[in-house]
Automatic annotation (TrEMBL):
Classification lineage: Bacteria, Pseudomonadati, Pseudomonadota, Betaproteobacteria, Burkholderiales
PANTHER family: BOLA TRANSCRIPTION REGULATOR, BOLA-LIKE PROTEIN 1
Official protein name in the record: BolA family protein
Listed Pfam families: BolA
Organism: Polaromonas aquatica
InterPro entries, per database record: BolA (IPR002634), BolA-like_sf (IPR036065), BolA/IbaG_stress_morph_reg (IPR050961)
Membrane spanning residue stretches: none
Family assignment from sequence similarity: Belongs to the BolA/IbaG family.
Gene3D superfamilies: BolA-like
């Protein structure tokens, strides 16, 4: 899977204001900004992202996804490098 494919999958199921992905095709690192995360705990945010992947985690198409999730306000306050 390419980063473009993974980004399309996530964005199809989750409205994202910003998304950054890097990885090797199976192991991914993501930064995701979405208003859907408002009022959600970290685990709930991650569950929302995992839900967009459907069975791709179970079939090992995406072996690992490490993520940082932010609301738009959190992202605006986050120091950008």
């Amino acid at each position: 899977m390419t980063s473009e494919e993974l980004q399309s999958i996530i964005m199809a199921g989750l409205p994202c204001e910003h998304i950054e992905l890097s990885g090797d095709g199976r192991h991914w690192y993501a930064t995701i900004v979405s208003s859907v995360f408002e009022g959600k705990r970290l685990i709930q945010r991650h569950q929302k992202v995992y839900a967009t992947l459907g069975g791709r985690m179970q079939t090992d198409e995406v072996h690992a996804l490490s993520m940082k999730t932010y609301t738009p306000a959190e992202w605006a306050a986050h120091p950008q490098s």
